[in-house]
Amino acid sequence: MSDLFLADPEQRQTSRRALRQQPAHARSRSHRRRRGGVVLALVFALLAGTCFVLWSVFGGLFDPAEPTADVIVDYPGPGSGQVQVTVAAGDTGDAIGATLTEAGVVATAQAFSDAYTANPQATAIQPGTYALHQRMRAADAVNALLDQGNRVSSRVTIPEGYTVEQVYQRLYEVTTISIEDYRAAAADPAALGVPVPVASVEGWLSPATYDVEPGADAVQVLSQMVARTVWELNTRGVPADQMQDVLTKASIVEREARRDEDRPKTARVIENRLREGMMLQVDATTLYGLGVTGRGPTRAELDDASNPYNTHEHLGLPPTPIAAPGAASLDAVLSPTPGNWRYWVTVNFDTGETLFAETYPEQLENEALMDEWLAANGY
Length: 379
Prior knowledge:
Layout: H1 9-20, H2 24-62, E1 80-87, H3 93-103, H4 109-118, E2 128-134, H5 138-146, E3 154-157, H6 164-175, H7 179-186, E4 209-212, H8 218-235, H9 243-256, H10 263-275, H11 283-290, H12 299-302, H13 327-334, E5 343-348, E6 353-357, H14 360-376
Antiparallel strand pairs: 1-2, 3-4, 5-6
Helix pairs in contact: 3-4, 4-5, 9-10, 9-13, 10-13
């Protein structure tokens, strides 16, 4: 109680004297207590103010009750590390954004979606597997997907005229999927998408360049090749019940004709001989049945009727195609050059020059030219 409220003047005087008579160290402790209280109060006030400012700026990021739909968080980039992500066929910008967000490439799907919309080239992003950084700026992620150099799929080219065994070997060299796996997958042509009953996928593995995604198996690889063949045939209006015959004829043209200008004539010879009931007498089919390439058949091989592909001994088309025909051979079969030729023979094996004949005596003259070339070139 303060001495100012003491009613007795003498008591007030006594109180003042008592205060003046307190030891100095006692008065000092009292002063420090008052000063410490002030400092503590100032510290609390400063902390409270700081917390208020921080909460005002960042509190919305942590308060689940506050809507954050309009807040788009984007990494500053350029990112680091590497992760593989797959863009599926038909993926929209939103779908790609969800994939990238889950993989840690972009901060939010919304940021990527906005960057995708803002980039007029974004719709050209191709399906495939890409190697990207994590924590990328969304706009940089769009550009990275447009850069085909970031694709990690294997690319394999199948030339025209390859047999299935040659195709399997080429695929194995690029994909490392075993040849045995490819053979096992090909044992069920229908499962690969061949639309008609066939005994073999020979001729159905379209020659083209393919991208094989990581993790793909033999069935997936061969299925896309069959799908390409079906597309080629459908595009040309080939009915399903004629597809196998068209591929078989085109495969013969592919293996026999070296020059594109000779393909429609070769196709016409095939049609003429089939129509007239003549043996095709094609060396390439006979060699296919023997599993031989790179040489001509011997006389004994031409006379071997046990070879079902020996068209010197068996009438009509061989049991299956003998190779993968290219587009030029397909077009030749579907639009053969008008003419009455029944024979052809290659007279220059360096250039592929081929002569066509309507009669057998004319064919013998052409074969003599072939023999001359062979003799002149040491064969």
